[in-house]
Design brief:
Length: about 425
């Protein structure tokens, strides 16, 4: 958490509470101390726990109101530095100085999520111990279990390099070496970059990630040099997986530009081809994972055998995946009576990023309501319905343009999974 360090008195109160978690008086004392020290969100979290143990406790209610008021007044002394991940859409901090993320995390960790599901909808691994967890929640490393749906993609990643890397001896016995490449493609916001982060979470130091937009240099020759450096570094660390995000920023068809731009681009694409080829030559132990929204704009040569010779569609989430994504983004927030199954049913066409946006928007609405009334109101279906009225699904435009591609350029079957998705779309 991005706050000032806690005082010794807060630390010893916390220790005392660890020994006596049911001591409401002690907890309210901690809440009071936190509030006095300017940790209003922490005070709300503690007062909420006290209220759960003793509903209607007047001191707890009073503290909640005071802390909520303190939160609604822009903090002068808390230079919040929200370490939001680069991939998160820019939906946070829309309210001038108020640290939504921190407040949500702290309040969320105090209140267990009362989902009202009829059936378990999610293959997502749950960490249900949020209620009993200490308040200092470390930012999770993303793993594949955080990625909702996309079971085929996960299986492919597992077969291509995760399993061989985990079981190097067995892989060697079967003559499977780590090499080759896989292209993730699909509409924006459906988890390509998120998947790569999850792979990084699984692999740790044996994963390298680079965005093609960062590789591109200002003058001729610089991009090639950058590319070579990235690949050299990856080879030096082998076995390793190199993730190249937004590969279309340089991998586009060499015929697609004319004049000086074309020559410039050709050099960059050639360098990329060269690097991918040395990978299939004497450079075992390097696997390249790449991502793009527009695989059909890529230079065909990049997709030939030994290079990025396999493509897999990272499709918009189906209803089961939507439920699991929503659960993931709601589970650490204070919620009441959320029918995830219903939400999943009415969000066809929403990307993972759209769904995250829905959850964040609903949380902001509940937070505003809590601040206005001076007591905590959890996120309810009303907040989510209101958020859904504001947010439109973003994958439909991509799917529309993809339809033409499938019609005219799928002779080699590369986009069969996309064709299947488009044909089956009505049944989802
Ligand atoms: N399958 C998913 N499960 C859980 N969260 C998801 C999923 N897909 C997307 N998200 C959420 O949406 C955010 C945006 O997704 P991400 O950046 O991976 O999309 P992308 O496919 O790389 O999009 P772009 O093509 O625009 O780069 C993620 O950070 C994550 O929070
Ligand atoms: Mg991305």
């Amino acid at each position: 958490m991005a706050d000032a360090p806690e005082t010794p008195i807060v630390a010893s109160l916390r220790r005392a509470l660890e020994a006596n978690p049911d001591d409401v008086v002690l907890r309210l004392h901690l809440a009071q101390t936190l509030l006095a020290a300017g940790h209003a969100a922490g005070a709300i979290a503690e007062a909420s726990i006290a209220l759960q143990a003793d509903p209607g406790n007047r001191q707890a209610l009073g503290l909640l109101a005071a802390a909520a008021t303190a939160l609604s007044t822009p903090a002068l002394s808390t230079p919040a530095a929200p370490a939001a991940s680069e991939d998160t859409p820019d939906t946070s901090d829309t309210s001038g100085g108020f640290d939504w993320e921190q407040a949500e995390q702290e309040v969320g960790s105090a209140v267990p999520p009362p989902f009202v599901e009829r059936v378990p909808v999610s293959p997502l691994a749950e960490d249900d111990d949020a209620a009993g967890a200490p308040l200092e929640v470390a930012r999770e490393t993303v793993t594949l279990s955080d990625v909702g749906g996309l079971d085929d993609v996960k299986r492919r990643l597992e077969e291509s390099f995760l399993a061989p890397m985990r079981n190097a001896d067995v892989a060697r016995a079967f003559g499977k070496s780590l090499r080759g490449g896989l292209l993730l493609y699909g509409p924006p916001g459906c988890g390509k970059t998120f998947l790569a982060r999850a792979v990084a979470g699984e692999l740790g130091a044996t994963f390298m990630s680079v965005s093609m937009t960062d590789v591109i240099g200002a003058y001729m020759g610089e991009t090639q040099k950058n590319l070579k450096r990235v690949f050299d570094e990856a080879r030096a660390q082998a076995p390793t997986v190199l993730f190249i995000d937004e590969i279309d920023s340089i991998g586009i068809r060499r015929g697609a530009l004319s004049g000086g731009g074309a020559a410039w681009l050709r050099q960059m694409v050639n360098e990329l081809l060269l690097q991918l080829d040395s990978m299939s030559g004497d450079n075992d132990g390097l696997y390249v994972l790449a991502a793009t929204n527009n695989p059909w704009d890529l230079d065909e040569a990049l997709l030939r055998p030994g290079r990025l010779d396999r493509s897999i569609l990272v499709s918009p989430p189906d209803a089961v995946a939507r439920a699991s994504i929503l659960r993931h983004h709601l589970k650490d927030r204070p919620i009441a009576g959320i029918d995830v199954g219903h939400l999943a049913a009415v969000t066809d066409g929403f990307s993972g990023a759209d769904l995250e946006h829905v959850a964040v928007t609903a949380a902001e609405k509940a937070m505003m309501q809590s601040i206005a009334q001076g007591s905590i109101s959890p996120i309810t279906m009303d907040h989510l319905d209101a958020a859904l009225r504001e947010i439109k699904p973003s994958t439909l435009a991509w799917l529309d343009s993809a339809r033409n591609v499938v019609r005219f350029s799928n002779a080699n079957g590369r986009y069969d999974d996309l064709a299947a998705l488009l044909n089956g779309k009505k049944r989802r």
